[in-house]
Amino acid sequence: MSTSPRSRTVVGCSLLVVSVAAGLASCSGGDHPLAAKPYDAGDRIAVSALTGDGGKADPDKPLEVTSRDSDGRLTDVTVTDAAGRHVPGELTADGSRWRSTAPLASGAHYTVRVSTEDEDGAPGRKVVEFDTGAGKAKKVDVTFGPDAGTYGVGQPVTATLSEPVEGKAARAVVERSLHVSAQPAVEGSWYWVDDTTLHYRPKDYWPAHATVEVSSDLRGLKVAERLRGGEAEPLKLTTGDKVVAATDAATHTMTVYRNDEEINEIPVTTGKSGFETRNGVKVVLGKQYLVRMRSTSIGIAEGSTDSYDLPVYYATQLTLSGEYVHAAPWSVDSQGSANVSHGCTGMSTSNAEWFYDTVRAGDVVTVVNSEGDAMAAFGNGFGDWNLSWKDWQKGSALAPAKPAKLPSLLDRARLRPQGA
Prior knowledge:
- The chain is elongated.
- It is mostly beta strands and 420 residues long.
- It contains five helices and 28 strands.
- A hairpin with a 6-residue loop joins strand 25 (309-317) and strand 26.
């Protein structure tokens, strides 16, 4: 295959340095090197990716395109994957080499478009395609939660990683690849709970009757040394009515709202001294018609004054440690007037049945005026809403840097040159 451009006549253009018009007049379009059809520059360039084992490039190594023509140079290199995403890179000043400045994805297909120029200025072109292999890195698979379905407006989205991800730079790669969209649209952010767990919530509760879609394009991307993005199944959720149950431990009442309108007020009893109910915002984790509750599960010795072993009906779970809203027929006389439970919110059987039928996972339950501790943000269910939006954003690896403090008017006056 010939790699030289068609025959070019350059002597007739020597007058170009004296007179552009004269030079143009003395050269026909077919003779000028810039007017020549681009030649095949295949044997004048080298693409490092093509040296990979098994015909596939190593994604853990940078991509390089070099010129083999000592008198020619590269003028442009464009690299894109099958989705049209560009791989950034740098071209040396002399046009001898282009090198990628971001890692390639594993298991991906790439197209390299190279433009060259020979010693006479004639253009060359070459398109090269290649695939990347799996590399030697571990894969970070992502599992989104909860399961697809309809939830209350307080339900956070979760992402569980199959491998730990440490360091802000690596976490930023992951977080930038996890996408949450909602209709109606809301402002939201991810929070790194630990090295393998992220939670996503909006600034305020989700809108009622919203659609939330979660997806990942992390697959194949380099996260850190020997760590690359893996698989993730997309997730679609919807929200129901906005249901919030507000419990006041001081007045022993729970007021339930649907779409910000009061629909019921229920007399309740909450945790007594030494077993106070946690204050704060909690999210319904699930419901069980019958739960056997044992005092030993919360550290009360069997046979002691406070020990119990009871079948409990219409149990709506709020924490992983065993806080429920449930039927407590044994304490009806205290409901509305005293706190006598071991931390749960108790109510009559009929009220508990109504509450059980009214709420769903993801609905919100708040508690105020208890002597108990504050609900933890993480580790005991979904306490995510107990963080302010400002503090929530600090948990993101993409959190913007703190802006520099602007000088005050007085400072600027002091900095102003004399006579200005």
